[in-house]
Write a structure and sequence with these properties.
The chain has helices spanning 2-18, 22-41, 46-55, 59-81, 98-114, 118-126, 130-147, 150-154, 164-168, 170-191, 207-217, 222-240, 248-260, 274-281, 288-306, 318-337, 342-351, 355-377; strands spanning 83-84, 87-88, 96-97, 158-159. The chain is mainly alpha-helical. The chain has one domain (2-193, 213-377). It is globular. It starts with a helix and ends in a 5-residue tail after the last helix. 49% of the residues are buried.
Length: 382
């Protein structure tokens, strides 16, 4: 039943978006594929960093480096050209400053006690986790709350966006970043502890049938998912004119709910910007990030149903629910003042050659370390 409902919703929304042109339908389908890949590979950042720091299991972070390398490799010549399909392209470029560092540190703490990052929250909530749905609601509240303080955060020391391609030329910037990814991958390989391979169950199905079953029902190898996510980010850039992002949707959803409850934006605040005010006045599906977030959740719902794992339950300890609320607030607030989350600021920022993406991960890792220790206070397993 959840699969039928999910597919019906996907089809109805695709028909609705078709009235706005083929790009919107293509972005909706891109979000669907991203949701399936995230769910079937359990591709998250919170757990990957935790396994790296606690068990020296580097597989998740190695997959992130592959995602970064492929996305950067595809982005560089596209940005050098400047346009695609008749539209001007913009990267995930943001200032380098105190707000990014503080926000990323907060996000690192939040994603550990919440149990998921920006993309992780979406696919686990869509896959049937009611606890992560609570995280999502809390993240929307935190992100909206941060938007009311953006003027103060933007007054703190910062420099305008620093883009490597502007400093070095796009070829040299590309070579530098690929070299950094390669070096980091080598260092992680040397530091990693051996991990026993997971035995695969015996099957009498043909190879083709087994592959098809795994495509639709999972699990996917994390490296395969990294390739799919990189291609999805490139697709988003070419279709929407900007890279994949997640948490702007959280901010917008929080503002929509606040508006229904009577909130009105201040005349000189964050929500008076042309982009923000336009998004607030429009429909949820009119905003690309918001629409793709919903598609990711529906894609995860369909994937969970195909895998026979869609089974919502509400029997969590009260400390776990408290962690969900607090973690959601931290990751929502942090992502807004840091100009994005693990996807919008880190992956898309680094792939766009913006130094704020590197600052983001540098600050998020210490936050992750602290968040891992706070998890134990809430009775959460490592």
């Amino acid at each position: 039943m959840p699969l039928v409902a999910g597919l019906a919703t996907l089809l109805l929304v695709a028909v609705r978006l078709g009235a706005d042109g083929w790009r919107q339908v293509a972005l909706w389908l891109t979000g669907l594929v991203l949701g399936v890949a995230l769910y079937h590979a359990s591709f998250g950042f919170a757990n990957a960093y935790r396994r790296m720091l606690l068990a020296r299991d580097m597989r998740g972070v190695q997959a992130q480096l592959l995602l970064l390398a492929l996305t950067t490799l595809c982005f560089a010549p596209v940005f050098a050209n400047g346009t695609a399909f008749g539209q001007v392209l913009g990267g995930a470029w943001a200032p380098v400053g105190v707000s990014v560092a503080v926000g990323a540190f907060m996000f690192g703490i939040g994603m550990q006690i919440a149990g998921g990052c920006g993309s992780g929250t979406l696919y686990t909530a869509g896959g049937g986790s009611l606890r992560m749905m609570l995280v999502l609601v809390s993240a929307c509240a935190g992100s909206f709350w941060a938007s009311l303080h953006m003027g103060w955060w933007q007054q703190l020391p910062s420099k305008d966006a620093i883009v490597l391609a502007d400093l070095l030329g796009w070829r040299m910037a590309l070579a530098l970043q690929l070299g950094i990814f390669g070096l980091l991958s080598f260092l992680l390989w040397r530091l990693a502890r051996p991990v026993a391979p997971v035995p695969r169950p015996a099957t009498n199905e043909s190879t083709t049938s087994a592959v098809l079953a795994r495509v639709f029902s999972g699990p996917w190898p994390v490296m395969v998912a990294a390739v799919v996510l990189a291609l999805g980010n490139v697709s988003t850039l070419l279709l929407a004119g900007h890279p994949w992002s997640i948490t702007w949707g959280f901010t917008l959803w929080g503002a929509k709910v606040a508006g229904w409850l009577g909130w009105r934006p201040a005349p000189d605040g964050f929500w008076q910007g042309d982009f923000q005010s336009g998004a607030l006045a429009g429909g949820v599906l009119d905003d690309t990030t918001s629409m793709m977030d919903l598609a990711i959740m529906l894609g995860a719902l369909c994937a969970a149903s195909l895998a026979g794992r869609f089974a919502p339950r509400w029997d969590f300890p009260w400390r776990s629910l408290l962690a969900a609320l607090l973690g959601g607030l931290l990751l929502g607030y942090g992502s807004r003042i840091a100009y994005g989350c693990n996807i919008g600021a880190f992956v898309s920022g680094v792939a766009s050659g913006s130094l704020h993406g590197w600052l983001w991960i540098t600050a998020a890792l210490p936050g992750t370390w602290l968040g891992i220790r706070l998890r134990r206070r809430f009775g959460m397993a490592d």
